[in-house]
Amino acid sequence: MQSESILKVENLNVAFDGNKILEDLSFEIKKGDITAVIGPNGAGKTVLFRALLGLVPYSGKFLWQKNIKVGYVPQRFIVERDLPLSVKEFLSYKGSRDKISEVLKWVGFQIKDEPPHSYMSGGGEHHLFRHLLNLPLGVLSGGELQKVLIAFALLGNPKVLLFDEPTTGVDIGGEETIYNLLKKLRDEHDLTVIFISHDIHVVYQYANNVLCLNKEKICFGPPHQALSSEELKKLYGTDIGVVEHSHVLK
Predict the structure, then answer these.
(1) In this structure, how many other beta carbons lie within 10 angstroms of the beta carbon of residue 190?
(2) N or C: which terminal CB in the chain sees fewer CB atoms within 10 Å?
(3) DSSP per residue over the chain, as a string?
C-alpha cells in the first residue's frame, strides 16, 4: 500500500536581491519518511526550511497535507550561561506541566522525584529529575539542550519535524543518541522527519530518502540508489568516496 503524501513541493524558487538561492525545486515527502537534505555550504538547505515555514518570500508552491502541524529545531540556539531562563520556564511558553513531562519522556529524559544529589550525567541514558527543570538552559550540555529543543518543538503536537543540523554543538558520543531519537520519534509517535546533514554516513544509516540540493535538485530517492559517485561529484564538484551500506531503514 502506497504511503500518503504529506508534502509536495512544485517549482519552488527563492531569490534574494536578484540572486537565485533555490531554482525550480520539486519533490514529494511521504508520511512516515525520514528524509535527509544534503549539499555544500550555500546550497540553500536552510533557506528551503525557511520557505517551507513561510518565513521567506518564494514563487512556485508547496502543498502540506491539510491541517498538518510542523515543528522546527534550528541549527544553532545560542544560550549564554548566565541567561536567567530555566528549562521549565522555556518549555512553559508552549505547553502545560503534564505535556512538558510527556514530551521530555519522549526525548529520553526520565522525570523522577529524586533529591538533587541523585542526578547523574555522562555515559548511558540521561536522567532529568524534577529539580533540573529549574536549571538555567545555559548550564545544559549540548546533547541535553538539543533534547530540550526537540521537546519544545514537540509541544505543539506536530506531525512533521524539521531539523537543521540535528547534532550541531553535540559531542561525538551524543550524535548517535540524537539520530536514534529521531527514528524512535518516527516509529513511536507517527512523525515524519526532514533533517539537514553534512554526514553521508548518517544519511545512509538513518534516512530512507535523501534530497541532494545545490540551489536546484541534483538527486532524490533512497540513499543507496540516489547517492552514486556521479551524483555526489555533481553535487559537491569533486570526487567523494562512497561506502555502500547494507542497512536500509524500514
Answers:
(1) 10
(2) N
(3) -PPPEEEEEEEEEEEETTEEEEEEEEEEEETT-EEEEE--TTSSHHHHHHHHTT-S--EEEEEEPTT--EEEE-S-----TT---BHHHHHHTT--HHHHHHHHHHTT-------GGG---SSS-----GGGGGSBGGGS-HHHHHHHHHHHHHTT--SEEEEESTTTT--HHHHHHHHHHHHHHHHHHT-EEEEE-S-HHHHHHH-SEEEEEESEEEEEE-HHHH--HHHHHHHHSS------------
CA atoms within 13 A on the CB side of 81: 2
Q: What is the pTM of this model?
A: 0.83
Task: Name the residue ranges covered by the structural domains of the chain.
Answer: 5-75+158-236, 87-150
The CA distance from 3 to 133, in Å, is 39
Q: How far apart are CA 227 and CA 96, in angstroms?
A: 43
Residue 154 CA to residue 149 CA, distance in Å, equals: 9
Query: Which residue's entry shows cell 505535556?
Result: 99
Question: Phi then psi for 140, rounded to 5 degrees?
Answer: -75, 150
Counting Cα atoms < 13 Å in the Cβ hemisphere of 100 gives: 17
CATH of domain 5-75+158-236: 3.40.50.300
CA 89 to chain CA centroid, Å, is: 23
Running along the chain, 250 residues long, what does each successive block of 10 average in pLDDT? Answer: 86 94 96 95 94 95 93 80 86 89 82 45 42 81 84 92 79 73 88 92 92 95 92 80 45
Residue for grid cell 506536530: 158
